[in-house]
Design goal:
alpha+beta, eight-stranded antiparallel beta sheet, three-stranded antiparallel beta sheet, 18 strands, pyruvate, lyase, PS_Dcarbxylase, decarboxylase, zymogen
Length: 274
């Protein structure tokens, strides 16, 4: 997929990298978030709806007091047909799905940043447990619903929060890192009822992406809301151990062609491997 002009400017030009360093300062992020949560940002809502062709039935009928109140909206009706059969694996969100095998030295490009599983988790021992497993990457586009759910019943045994990091832009650093930002991210290790130990991770985005997880959940329920993104945050990752699921044939065929698959919150995307 071809990157947008502003992304290429920020990441691939010297001037853009200097601008990127300023954009990622915490003060700018706080200022942007404050504006998007204020009534002054309300005028953006109808423009955003028109630009991204968001259907009216996907929104609560109300006057949103700020842009973020719209972006984090709840649906009128959440899916009532979330698959509850134990052998069916469901999508945690609306979005575009890519699936990759987890292998030694493989990296994944997530929001314009390349990560290994170890870098994502910042835990080598934990990363080793998922070797030869599967990495499911759900990319939420602007028009998607930005709330997400648990994929199965289980026990949340650990929750980890990793702040974002800005690498310096000196030539030596540029030779070391293919990109210059590491996104903030949170992940939950879940001992699931049907799919062994699963890692469910949310990744924030450049500038104002913010993750809101309901970390008071000890016991998880399939389809129960896990949290939501404010504007800017838009990637969810599921890590599964080897031999746990068999992906839907449609998704396998799309991956062979290098195509993401459109998925819906609560939709069955794989079966438990027998």
């Amino acid at each position: 997929m071809k990157e947008s002009l502003y992304i290429r400017f920020l990441y691939e030009t010297a001037l853009g990298r200097c601008f990127l360093k300023w954009l990622t300062q915490s003060g700018f992020s706080r200022l942007a978030a404050r504006y998007l949560n204020s009534p002054a940002s309300g005028w953006l809502v109808p423009l955003y709806i028109r630009k991204h062709h968001i259907p009216a039935e996907d929104c609560e009928y109300q006057n949103y007091p700020s842009f973020n109140s719209f972006f984090t909206r709840k649906r009128n009706i959440l899916p009532q047909d979330i698959e509850q059969a134990a052998f069916r694996f469901v999508s945690p969100c609306d979005g575009f799905l890519s699936v990759y095998p987890i292998q030694t030295d493989i990296t994944f490009r997530i929001k314009n940043i390349c990560y290994s599983i170890e870098q994502l988790l910042q835990n080598q021992k934990l990363a080793d447990e998922y070797q030869n497993g599967a990495c499911l990457i759900f990319r939420l586009a602007p028009q998607n619903y930005h709330r997400y759910c648990y994929i199965d019943h289980g026990l949340a045994v650990k929750q980890v929060s990793i702040p974002g990091i800005l690498h310096c832009v000196r030539p030596t650093a540029l030779n070391t890192y293919p990109v210059y930002i590491q996104n903030s991210r949170e992940y939950t290790i879940i001992n699931t009822k049907n799919f062994d130990t699963v890692i469910q991770m949310e990744i924030g985005a450049l500038i104002v992406g913010k993750i809101h997880n309901y970390n008071n959940h000890i016991y998880t329920e399939r389809g129960a809301e896990k949290g939501y993104f404010e504007f800017g945050g838009s990637t969810i990752i599921i890590l599964l151990k080897r031999g746990i699921i068999q992906m839907d044939e449609r998704i396998i065929e799309n991956m062979k062609k290098g195509i993401e698959t459109t998925v819906k919150y609560g939709e069955c995307i794989a079966l438990k491997q027998q």
